[in-house]
Amino acid sequence: MSLQGTPLSATLSLVMSQCCQKIKDTVQKLASDHKDIHSSVSRVGKAIDRNFDSEICGVVSDAVWDSREKQQQILQMAIVEHLYQQGMLSVAEELCQESTLNVDLDFKQPFLELNRILEALHEQDLGPALEWAISHRQRLLELNSSLEFKLHRLHFIRLLAGGPEKQLEALSYARHFQPFARLHQREIQVMMGSLVYLRLGLEKSPYCHLLDSSHWAEICETFTRDACSLLGLSVESPLSVSFASGCVALPVLMNIKAVIEQRQCTGVWSHKDELPIEIELGMKCWYHSVFACPILRQQTSDSNPPIKLICGHVISRDALNKLINGGKLKCPYCPMEQNPADGKRIIF
């Protein structure tokens, strides 16, 4: 029997009214939530458009690279070196195979050795690091490195942590400190003084700082720094340094490029080995001394190196050539007259 046209009872009418109100409230809530989400998503898109430029490659001229193949090879080599330095050896080997990049064993060997020793240090195994430090003792001393002493100190502290049972072994091992007595007298005295509290518990003594776990992180950093210095490697991979520097320099270069294009300036950025302006990258990225010629107010380079005159004053080679008069050079500071050929190049 059809109920169409039949009036609803008061109870059913109330239930229907409540259901309709709930549906209306739900729809309004969904619409409001969708509006908030849509607003957030649209802001993300605008932020991406504002911070990323699809023409970012245009900042660097193609003339920087000899060829596209050379560019690809340099990039692949930088990635492989970074992977080796980070200990991701299997990934580096796979990249070499897929890119047909030929990497000599002599290039891999230092990274393999460093990672082997660092893995042992992370597992608190001092054996490989001590063996390496002893075999390179003379060269480490020439670098004023305290790596070997710190390794012996850490081994001695591990013996102290073993309690009174390890006291005799610790005293016997202390003989390894004898070659370092002159330079590390204070540290040795502290370690020997801690033996007094061994039976009472070193962790509750004034020497509890010797058991701090931070010593293991410190020895890893010391080994990495000194080993890289001895082997002629950078502590940070060139790829990570280039990436960090690029993050700082790229926005500045993009602004300069936009200004050059707007003002239609030509020839401002024509040299492939120079930037149109000086970009401050911070003290972390200072790797060598910088000399600016006091005459021409230009930073010296390989093609225009600093020259030391007989009188001791230093100017750039370009300035020297400009000051030559009649085959003689008069120093702009003394002024002492001298032969330009007597100037000597300075390497900072």
Automatic annotation (TrEMBL):
<dbReference type="GO" id="GO:0005634">
    <property type="term" value="C:nucleus"/>
</dbReference>
<dbReference type="InterPro" id="IPR027370">
    <property type="entry name" value="Znf-RING_euk"/>
</dbReference>
<dbReference type="GO" id="GO:0043161">
    <property type="term" value="P:proteasome-mediated ubiquitin-dependent protein catabolic process"/>
</dbReference>
<keyword id="KW-0808">Transferase</keyword>
<dbReference type="Pfam" id="PF10607">
    <property type="entry name" value="CTLH"/>
</dbReference>
<dbReference type="GO" id="GO:0005737">
    <property type="term" value="C:cytoplasm"/>
</dbReference>
<keyword id="KW-0862">Zinc</keyword>
<dbReference type="Pfam" id="PF13445">
    <property type="entry name" value="zf-RING_UBOX"/>
</dbReference>
<dbReference type="GO" id="GO:0061630">
    <property type="term" value="F:ubiquitin protein ligase activity"/>
</dbReference>
<dbReference type="InterPro" id="IPR044063">
    <property type="entry name" value="ZF_RING_GID"/>
</dbReference>
<dbReference type="InterPro" id="IPR024964">
    <property type="entry name" value="CTLH/CRA"/>
</dbReference>
<keyword id="KW-0863">Zinc-finger</keyword>
<dbReference type="InterPro" id="IPR045098">
    <property type="entry name" value="Fyv10_fam"/>
</dbReference>
<dbReference type="InterPro" id="IPR006594">
    <property type="entry name" value="LisH"/>
</dbReference>
<dbReference type="GO" id="GO:0034657">
    <property type="term" value="C:GID complex"/>
</dbReference>
<dbReference type="GO" id="GO:0008270">
    <property type="term" value="F:zinc ion binding"/>
</dbReference>
<dbReference type="InterPro" id="IPR006595">
    <property type="entry name" value="CTLH_C"/>
</dbReference>
<protein>
    <submittedName>
        <fullName>E3 ubiquitin-protein transferase RMND5B isoform X3</fullName>
    </submittedName>
</protein>
<comment type="subunit">
    <text>Identified in the CTLH complex that contains GID4, RANBP9 and/or RANBP10, MKLN1, MAEA, RMND5A (or alternatively its paralog RMND5B), GID8, ARMC8, WDR26 and YPEL5. Within this complex, MAEA, RMND5A (or alternatively its paralog RMND5B), GID8, WDR26, and RANBP9 and/or RANBP10 form the catalytic core, while GID4, MKLN1, ARMC8 and YPEL5 have ancillary roles.</text>
</comment>
<feature type="domain" description="CTLH">
    <location>
        <begin position="110"/>
        <end position="167"/>
    </location>
</feature>
<dbReference type="InterPro" id="IPR013144">
    <property type="entry name" value="CRA_dom"/>
</dbReference>
<comment type="function">
    <text>Core component of the CTLH E3 ubiquitin-protein ligase complex that selectively accepts ubiquitin from UBE2H and mediates ubiquitination and subsequent proteasomal degradation of the transcription factor HBP1. MAEA and RMND5A are both required for catalytic activity of the CTLH E3 ubiquitin-protein ligase complex. Catalytic activity of the complex is required for normal cell proliferation. The CTLH E3 ubiquitin-protein ligase complex is not required for the degradation of enzymes involved in gluconeogenesis, such as FBP1.</text>
</comment>
<feature type="zinc finger region" description="RING-Gid-type">
    <location>
        <begin position="293"/>
        <end position="334"/>
    </location>
</feature>
<keyword id="KW-0963">Cytoplasm</keyword>
<dbReference type="InterPro" id="IPR037681">
    <property type="entry name" value="RMD5B_dRING"/>
</dbReference>
<feature type="domain" description="RING-Gid-type">
    <location>
        <begin position="293"/>
        <end position="334"/>
    </location>
</feature>
<keyword id="KW-0479">Metal-binding</keyword>
